[in-house]
Amino acid sequence: MKEKILAHLSGVFLFLMFPYVITILINGLDAALLNRPLNVEDCLAGIVALQIPADYELETIKSQAIIARTNLYRRIREEDDLPDILAEIRENLQKSGGYWFFPDEVYEEAVRQTEGKVLYYQGELKLVPYHEISGGKTRDGAEVLHDGEYSYLKAVDSSADQKSPDYLNSTYFSLQQMPKELEIGRRDSSGYVTSLLADGNTLEGEAFRQGMGLASSNFTIQKVGEEYRLLCKGRGHGLGLSQYGGNEIARAGGTYEEILSAYFPAMEIDEIL
After folding, report:
1. pLDDT digits (tens, 9 = 90+) for 154-166
2. Cβ contacts of 243 within 8 Å, gap of 6 or more
């Protein structure tokens, strides 16, 4: 489970500079990037554009920029293979409609106004996750990932998420599509399903959520006639920043510092060293 979540949470980024268009056309994107030192600030707006909508408040997008910068520097310092990072660039460019992708100016502004700022935990760069909407409370990292290394990810109140029009999501499955007997086994302290019982077998909650295409693993199960109804709260894995909740803080006049402090109380904002 941990590997799947970490893979899902890993930062992805986009990097394309006009002076290298000819090189890209001749040799391909990978060759152009491998032959040029990586400038994090140059490529960060593209990363953030793939992670959060442009119509969110600037302070929320600044928060996301700091998260993206932290995750990218962490990967670089952990010496991730550059070919793997380039493969992610290529994949996400294709999802965004090809190599000609120009992020909205709000992303450039968010990056400029937070230049060099990252999140630290006890002086170290750590994985900083985010999701769209929580179930009303974010999740505890050590509890979800079964590893004390992630204890810096604290469960915090995010009840403002309940105001989102996408907070509740119902998905229906015919009885034939599901096990004959299906019930929730355990939930974590934030209400997310961690295990289910399916015809005597135990299923992992997040894996079930992803396999069934559910909005989140914070759900209830109900039989309705010849169908199962799964009612989900929130969208995403529930760890770290709730983008909707953070945006509500920004809409009320809060700053990016206040947003990040609310969702990462054990971490500190500082300049990258």
Report:
1. 999 999 999 999 9
2. 52, 56, 60, 64, 130, 131, 132, 133
